[in-house]
Amino acid sequence: MGHSSLEKIIALQRNPANIRNLCILAHVDHGKTTLADCLVASNGIISSRLAGKLRYLDSREDEQVRGITMKSSAISLHYANGGQEYLLNLIDSPGHVDFSSEVSTAVRLCDGAIVVIDAVEGVCPQTQVVLRQAWLENIRPVLVINKIDRLIMELKLSSQEAYTHLQKILEQVNAVTGSLFTSKVLEERAEKNKEEEEKEGEAAPDGDQVYDWSAGLEEADDSHLYFSPDQGNVVFASAIDGWGFSIQQFVHIYSQRMGIKAEVLLKTLWGDFYLNAKAKKIMKGAQAKGKKPLFVQLVLDNIWSLYDAVVTRRDKEKVEKVMTSLGVKVMARDSRHSDPKVLLSAICSQWLPVSRAVLSMVCEKLPSPLDMAAERVEKLMSVGARRFDSLPEKTQELKKAFLQCSSEENAPVIIFVSKMFAVDVKALPQNRQRPLTQEEISQRRELARQRHAEKLAADQMAATEGNKDHGQPAGLGTAKMESLTLKESKPEEEEEQRETFVAFARVYSGVVKKGQRVFVLGPKYDPAQGLSTLPENCTASDCATEVPYLSRCSMESIYLLMGRELEELEEVPAGNVLGLGGLEDFVLKSATLSTSAACPSFAPLNFEATPIVRVAIEPKHPSEMPKLVRGMRLLNQADPCAEVLIQETGEHVLVTAGEVHLQRCLDDLRERFAKIKIAASEPIIPFRETVVRPPKVDMVNEELGRQQKVAIIHQVKEEASQSRLSDNLHVDPNGLVTLTTPNRLATVGVRAIPLPQEVTSLLERSSELIRTLEQMNLSLREGKNLDISVGTMDAIAGLKAQLENLLQGRRWRSAVERIWAFGPRRYGPNILLNSVEGYQRPSVWQCLNRGGEVGEAGAPAAGLRDFDSSIISGFQLATLSGPMCEEPLMGVCFSIERWDIQSSAPSQNQDSPLDISNEGLAEVHEASPAAAAGLNQARRRADAALADCYGPVSGQLIAATKDACRHAFQAQPQRLMAAMYTCEIMATAEVLGRVYGVLGKREGRVLNEEMKEGTEMFIIKAVLPVAESFGFADEIRKRTSGLASPQLVFSHWEVISSDPCWVPTTEEEYLHFGEKADSANQALKYMNAVRRRKGLYVEEKIVEHAEKQRTLSKNK
């Protein structure tokens, strides 16, 4: 990059009205990076011949090998359009589902997006995901329909068929956008209706009730949302051949040539219009009259005929005619080239350059940083339960700074860091080798000559004196010394060759200067608390007061991101994307930086992919463990989606989003961060344990009688009687488990009930809300006041109403009010129910009516309150690791039906305190005040004796509750739940059978298959267990010769229908399965694999029938 152009970009950064921050979003392999290459080539950074082949923004080696983008990278481009100069901060993002977290980091920093769609494949799963991400972040998209050359060369469509196909693609994209818009309007309408109902309820209840069933969609204006070529937000392109156009370009050409007004042609060039040559008019109804639409006649036919002449028939005369009519000149070597595509791209890149079409659309249609919507600002500033109105006044004033995007001296600096990325220290601009000037070259030459002359003189002196004592020349000694010093200094150099982190960020307000000190706001930072603690007008440089979740740092260096390179800057004004150095010790993955303590922490990023693939990692050589720990810490910081944790067993576990992501993380650990050999375990597959309602039929579909249920209870009783708890445990035939603590002070009765599927899903979706509810209850118990937004309170009330609606029937009567706790970790998808007679405890929903009930929080007896937490702790432990294979429980309700506590210890220990109190009572009438004081002391001693047993009792009660829950779980039919992926596969008809074969072999289940209109492609939607998914993508590609590629996204948990503990009991089952029933039981196979990995006992026979079978052939 030339020095002058760097100065040009610095000058353009000062004018936010002409800045465009945009990212390129698409499904994998739809041509994002090729399009980015064409745009980069327009600035002369790479050769236009290499555009599409170089993939400039894919700077990693594995990105080039695999041919997919794995990280989002930014570059700043300069473009002149309509007499104005623009600065475009372009971010290329990955399309693979494993790296969708990188898309989230890119989208947050942008104001607009280019959505790229393959003209053959159309709207794919990941296209829908990126459109939703753009919608959630309130950024405006424009559309590029890419790979139109495939319609000509591969599908061999005529121009008329291609036009119909392109119309369908536009309809599909607009349908996705329309559904997002509809859901938003309906949500707003529901809120509005609720407010109106409340007002009407307050005003007058009587009068005629008129129901308004309009959804609000009629009034809502959605015209600006949809993609339409006549609006100028669609470009048709083939990035690999270097051409692309918007309708406006052809309107400009034909309006002059045909003498038709540009406005008329713009409205009619796309749509059901045709040209009546006789009347010289544009008329409607091309389809009905069987005429060619204008778009086909004036646009597509020209492109089709060009491809036909250049690529298909290679007609030199026609090509020359076309070139003269277009006014295009091509170099002789291009026209003589053996590959016709070279000539084609040479003609097209001059006639319809894709960079011009896309960049002019970006400049005209995408918003500048000054046009940021107020709604988006409020969304960014209000985190979680906080509402924008409830923020302090100073914080609300910062909204103006956002909207003005001011770069004045007094404007507060606000920066958002979306991710940290690792850079080799050598690649930093300050360490890069710069070209030497002529003066420096001559100085170095002179120095080298002097050194050489001195060395010669020293050697001559040594030769004349002679070195007989040592028997070696002095020159050799000095050479050895030099080599030694070199060897010693090498380890230091190696230490220095480490990775450094650069923050990928955007300035929303103010000017960022090198060396400036700012506040780093953690995700839990509360601006109200910060403002009250810090002195007035306090800045990051002069303030030393400690505030929770607030730290200070200085920005050591500021970089301009230029794809593979960084350029150092002194300052960056508002509205720009930049890189910040020196933040690795203060920012983990993302953060908000500001010079104002009133600034809140921004809303967290929306990650679409859930990390679910876990592997345990250890170094090949145990002595290198510290290097591995350091390497994993760096990896955790460098990857927005990867998680690193240490399990209770001491294993270092890496959690990633999928197989490709896992492979990239392991390669990074080996080659960049740890630089050691590591061993990774087989993937650790997560399971859940649950109970189901007793089955109606057995394994051979025979109806079950009473004897089967009794057999289950007897089996549990037998197992329990063998265990050490046999004296204390009682199992009721109905599944109620009663257990007494070893010291006989407490008895707990628990029953396990399966929760309905809808309730489990609701609890899983609402985990964050339940966590907020738990925090609010904790604050109420401690007597703190919490400023919670109305939205959060409504959400909690809505959750309660949904639960009441779903938990219907005799068994669940008033169950929602009796919920004791959620678990595991107090927000999981399991419920503890209070069914103890006569025990009224505060409801978990007490925050909803906290006005009246705060004072009653301490109403229950003190002893019960103390032991109440022990019951909850026992439940949390039981739900965290189930009895089948120590995996968390899911969808189980534990109902505590009996809870007896003897408040006194056994009688002999209690005699003396009781006697003291009786005597005291008798004497109190006659005795002096001194005697009364003695009585109080004796009572205090008695209370202390009782309090002493709290420690052991609470511990034993926790253990008893946990064991009771586990036994109650085992008394019900138990099942394993497997994590499931949804799998979308695009395949042609020839390989459909093979795809089905691979899915069937891996326990997959096809949900539906549909043929994509206008193509030979089938879309297969299936679900596949995560446990069976490893190597699935590779196997599909091998079996189908690369014609089908799956996209796996974590979807849900599903109960495995087979019982892992099943043994044949009826005669039919014996006949069908044999005595040992050793046919493959999928659930048992998974359960034993998990137990084996965790070192638990596995019930299996290693050798059976040890006699060797001899066949006749072996005996010869």
TrEMBL record:
Question: Keyword annotations for this protein?
Answer: Elongation factor, GTP-binding, Hydrolase, Nucleotide-binding, Protein biosynthesis, Ribosome biogenesis
Q: Name one GO molecular function term.
A: GTP binding
Tr-type G domain sequence ranges: 17-370
GO annotation terms (biological process): cytosolic ribosome assembly
Q: Name one Pfam family in it.
A: GTP_EFTU
- SMART domains per UniProt: EFG_C (SM00838)
Name used for this protein in its record: Elongation factor-like 1
Source species, please? Solea senegalensis
